[in-house]
Design brief:
With 494 residues, the protein is an alpha/beta fold. It is 32% helix and 25% strand. It has a nine-stranded mixed sheet, with helices on both faces. Strands 11-10-15-14-13-12 form a six-stranded mixed sheet. Strands 16-17-18 form a three-stranded antiparallel sheet, with no helix packed on it. Helix 2 packs parallel to helix 5 and helix 3 crosses helix 5. The protein is elongated, with a radius of gyration of 28 Å. Keywords: Membrane, Transmembrane, Transmembrane helix. This is Carboxymethylenebutenolidase. InterPro entries: Cyclase_SnoaL-like (IPR009959), NTF2-like_dom_sf (IPR032710). It comes from Aspergillus flavus (strain ATCC 200026 / FGSC A1120 / IAM 13836 / NRRL 3357 / JCM 12722 / SRRC 167).
């Protein structure tokens, strides 16, 4: 009965192919809602759908291209595409709207550009960034997902004006005034708490401090390098030099001895240092959020939403909708995941979301929340009753129950995820699967130890354990500490 009802509804959708009117869209919405209710019934039989078209649409949604892709069809075709998506997945009209923020930079002059927030919230405080063009000779030849400052701060949900300075554009004072006017007139800029200024090229703007101090709207200054004098406003310096942190009543100075120039923060520059840049950006964010009162987001809620789509709803498109334009996931022990939206979408669709066993669950042990990160300790629980190639590549299902200590470091940019660094104890996985012996041979001679006699070999006790590792993460007293100190090499006949 259910399959027959569904087929009738699909024919009704086809029957209104040629009707491009508001009423037709209402009918489609009603029919899709009834399809949704049918699908939730245990007696529902999913109709056959056009899988190739569905695959194209699903990947388009995951890549943030669904809107232009679907809207390029005439209305009747869009209706049919929506039906196909619904039949094959749980995608609904609401989910189709979960597209990426699509604000684009707008040039105000040759060297002044404004960018609306690239967040789901869509608004935020204003910041002005002052930087020079990176000369071709100084370009970074290594690839990185980290965007340039204009996009990066827009993804943090700020309204951003970029002033590009050079010998051809020396009039920084006029540009600063133009930038403040642009923020004041922008609908997506939260103006009540004032603006921040980030100076990436202090050598080009030697006298900028005097000009900044004239504007009451500017509440905070960040500079990658020393300015000619100390500002009268709260400031934060990032200096490429030896030394430690300094703190005064009005400002903070951080030093980065491992970098070679102040351009370590610019992804397109040859001196870009990814780890130092990440630390500096987090420090900037803490400073600016405090001084500009935001934007504030519930990072725990954002992370929980992401994992809900991964493990509960198992929706690739919804999972990807919680991430920035170019995100990545790194599973460190197996080096699996995806770098960039296209590869990550493919990873989620083909190796993760639908590969996890039905009984998969995450038992949270602890959670630490920072200004732009969530760090979770948890036990990853599953029955290995299907291939899980992201976790145990190349190993067929064993039927074993696994409890694995995990840690996730999740970087959230604005109200969307930028990356996940996931790590776990792979040795305990192999022990729990029964694939790691208690002893293994030492394949070389040990220093200061006689060679083994003929017919005998040296073996070492593998320093690892099974599910007890997860037990000890949950309860520190569940397993005695330091038992492995007694492990030793043994000699065995072969």
């Amino acid at each position: 009965m259910f399959k027959r009802a569904t087929e009738i509804q699909l024919r009704l959708l086809d029957a209104i192919f040629g009707c491009e009117c508001f009423l037709s869209e209402i009918i489609v919405a009603i029919l899709l809602v009834s399809l949704a209710r049918l699908r939730e019934d245990p007696g529902y039989a999913r109709p056959e759908c056009d899988r190739p078209v569905h695959s194209i649409i699903t990947m388009s949604i995951g890549n943030g291209k669904a809107s232009s892709f679907i809207n390029s069809f005439p209305l009747p075709a869009r209706i049919r595409v929506s039906t196909i998506i619904y039949c094959e997945t749980t995608t609904t009209i609401h989910q189709l709207k979960m597209l990426l923020p699509n604000a684009k930079p707008v040039k105000l002059t040759d060297n002044v550009t404004i960018h609306a927030p690239l967040s789901r919230q869509g608004h935020g405080p204003g910041i002005i960034i002052i930087r020079d063009d990176t000369p071709t000779s100084q370009r970074n030849e290594r690839s990185t997902l980290d965007p340039e400052p204009l996009q990066k701060w827009a993804e943090e949900s700020y309204t951003v004006v970029q002033v590009t300075v050079s010998s051809d554009h020396p009039a920084v004072k006029e540009d600063l005034h133009r930038a403040i006017d642009a923020l004041g007139g922008h609908d997506n800029c939260d103006k009540e708490t004032g603006y921040g200024v980030i100076i990436y090229s202090p050598s080009f703007v030697a006298d900028i401090v005097d000009e900044i101090d004239k504007y009451d709207e500017i509440k905070a200054i960040v500079s990658y390098g020393r300015l000619t004098r100390t500002p009268n406003k709260p400031f934060l310096y990032h200096l490429p030099e030896q030394g430690t942190k300094e703190k005064s009543e009005s400002g903070v100075i951080y030093r980065y001895p491992e970098v070679v120039s102040a351009s370590f923060i610019i992804p397109s520059h040859k001196d870009f240092n990814a780890s130092s840049a990440a630390v500096a950006h987090t420090r900037c964010l803490s400073f600016l959020k405090k001084e500009l009162d935001g934007p504030w987001f519930d990072l725990e809620e954002i992370w929980d939403e992401h994992t809900k789509y991964e493990f509960d709803e198992r929706s690739v498109e919804n999972t990807m909708s919680t991430m920035v334009q170019e995100p990545y996931v790194n599973h460190i022990p197996t080096m699996t995941g995806g770098i960039g939206r296209e590869k990550l979408t493919s990873f989620y669709a083909n190796h993760f979301i639908f590969s996890n066993p039905e009984d998969t669950k995450l038992e949270l042990v602890s959670r630490t929340i920072g200004i732009d990160r969530v760090v979770d300790e948890f036990v990853f629980c599953l029955t290995h009753d299907k291939p899980v190639d992201w976790l145990i590549p190349g190993i067929p299902p064993t039927g074993k129950e696994l409890r694995i200590p995990f840690m996730a470091v999740v970087n959230i940019r604005g109200d969307r995820l930028y990356h996940e660094h996931i790590t776990w104890d792979q040795l305990t996985v192999l022990f729990q699967l029964g694939l790691m012996p208690e002893y293994l041979p030492i394949p070389y001679d040990l220093p200061n130890r006689p060679d083994s006699q003929a017919g005998r070999t040296l073996e070492y006790r593998v320093p690892g354990a099974g599910a007890q590792t997860a037990d000890k993460m949950v309860d520190e007293s569940s397993v005695a500490s330091n038992e492995m100190f007694s492990y030793a090499v043994r000699e065995r006949s072969v």
